[in-house]
Write a structure and sequence with these properties.
By secondary structure, the chain is of the alpha/beta class. Helices cover 34% and strands 21% of the residues.
Length: 319
């Protein structure tokens, strides 16, 4: 009988066909920042058993004990650490960074991202064989974020239908990692004190772009078609339309001023979102608060004209 590989190692097959450890390369932390979606998280975690290589540590960064099911955690095939603190994507991601050492790899996934069975193994292959790569993001086979969302069962069907060739994969340049699945080396993070920008509150739209561009000074950011998964885009617990619409104006401009987003990209993104919200507000999708987003866009443009635009303004919308 083959022994299961329970931590991240470069692996090879023995003559008997069993997968056996070759040598330890990195400590890999699989990290999920989540809040208010316990059932979604539990279903995602239930598939960790399927991974051909297990993470050295699973880190769950939450805002409340009610965000997790301790009984589910006890069944997982890897060590687990839970970090509890203030709510907000950047706050929660930064709590994960409190645990890193210079020789780690961190893989952030969303609580509704389903990894192909070989995902963690292939993450290791990317960083082992390409020492100049500081961040990689994967191929999203289907993304429910732009639609009504994808059911868990259908997401698993999509994964089952897709079989990537282990020997045939490519790396292509990427401007940034996609927050639902992005892995990075921790050495530049530790050496240069990099963090997710907590000026971007709550959902913290574009925090993945900001962090990626900080990392880009120290190596290549790539997309690997060997890293495959499905982003369900579950709508439960998402930011309300007004707040998100405001962030669609404030966040790109903030990153442009900061220097982590080029002006042409920021302005194109803003214009595209404003136009989409205007047009689709006439017949909004049931799963999107288009009119709330458009209202938030207008509030953001008004604050821009008055010189008081700031990403933190959305905090006031919840009071």
């Amino acid at each position: 009988m083959c022994n299961q590989v329970t931590n991240f190692q470069q692996i090879e097959k023995s003559e008997s066909g069993c997968v056996v450890p070759k040598r330890h390369v990195h400590r890999v932390l699989l990290a999920i920042a989540t809040t208010g979606r316990k059932d979604v998280l539990s279903r995602t975690l239930s598939h960790l058993h399927r991974q051909t290589v297990q993470p050295d540590l699973l880190v769950l960064s939450i805002a409340s004990e009610s965000d997790i099911d301790r009984a589910v955690l006890e069944t997982l095939p890897c060590p687990v650490e839970v970090k509890i603190g203030p709510k907000g994507a950047c706050h929660q991601r930064n709590r994960v960074l409190e645990l890193i050492t210079p020789n780690d790899v961190v893989l952030f996934i969303d609580d509704d991202f389903l990894m192909a069975d070989s995902y963690l193994e292939r993450v290791g292959n990317v960083f082992t064989t390409h020492p100049d790569v500081v961040m990689t993001t994967g191929e999203v086979l289907a993304d429910g974020i732009s639609g009504p969302g994808i059911s868990h069962d259908f997401g698993m069907e999509i994964l089952a239908q897709f079989q990537a060739d282990l020997e045939d994969f490519t790396l292509s340049p990427s401007y940034n990692g996609y927050g639902c699945n992005m892995a990075f080396r921790t050495s530049p993070v530790v050496d240069h004190g990099l963090r997710f920008d907590e000026t971007l509150p709550f959902y913290a739209w574009l925090e993945d772009v900001d962090f990626s561009r900080q990392l880009s000074a120290y190596g290549r950011i790539v997309k690997s078609n060997s890293l495959t998964g499905v982003h369900l885009g579950t709508k439960k617990g998402r930011t309300n339309g007004k707040s998100f619409g405001y962030s669609q104006i404030s966040n790109p401009l903030y990153l442009m001023d900061k220097g982590t987003m080029i002006p042409s990209r920021a302005l194109k993104m803003m214009l595209r979102n404003i136009v989409a919200n205007c047009i689709k507000s006439l017949r909004p999708e049931p799963w999107v608060d288009r009119r709330g987003r458009l209202y938030g866009n207008l509030l953001g443009l008004g604050d821009l004209i008055c010189g008081k635009l700031t990403p933190t303004k959305v905090i006031q919308f919840t009071k």
